[in-house]
């Protein structure tokens, strides 16, 4: 994201909104991408509903206005899923290229996209083993290409990653971290964490 912010800054100036502009653009693109994915999965009459809800999701609004790559991560994740489903339906080089680039760029903006790619890889291996997919060599080549491109993109930061892993101090285990993350995203609401306790007590 810092590269896009630097480009926007060089073209449009040093204003704060300029630094947030790439995030806003990816936020809008994420809504459009979700609309297209919804139209592919369901009736086009209901395709606007998920996109409409995403527009007003507090976390997406935050992502689309912060100087981070989170909105780009959302956009590339949706494109990755859409292109994967299209590939599973009918293989083509164009769809494979979109899938590979969306996955690699998503991981470049945020490593969390790697979890999505890993999930799709496991799903692909499972479906290939059950003969629910064809073209094992093509699918494996696509995932190898994703790993190679992502690796090349991260190559300049390898030494920084290694230094962080080796020299970074370790904190004490925080058992309240899930609640802290939930509170940060949704406000200080305790009831979702009380429901499992009530269910356990009732059992």
Structure in words:
The chain is mainly α. Helix content is 77%, strand content 0%. The protein has helices at 2-12, 16-41, 48-55, 58-63, 70-89, 93-109, 113-129, 136-154, 158-167, 177-186, 191-202. The relative contact order is 0.07.
Summarize the structure.
This protein is mainly α and 203 residues long.
Cα distance spanning the termini: 48 Å
Mean pLDDT: 81
Question: What portion of residues is helical?
Answer: over 70%
Q: Based on helices, strands and strand pairing, what is the structural class?
A: mainly alpha
Which overall shape is indicated by the principal axes computed on the Cα atoms?
Answer: globular
Present the secondary structure layout.
Layout: H1 2-12, H2 16-41, H3 48-55, H4 58-63, H5 70-89, H6 93-109, H7 113-129, H8 136-154, H9 158-167, H10 177-186, H11 191-202
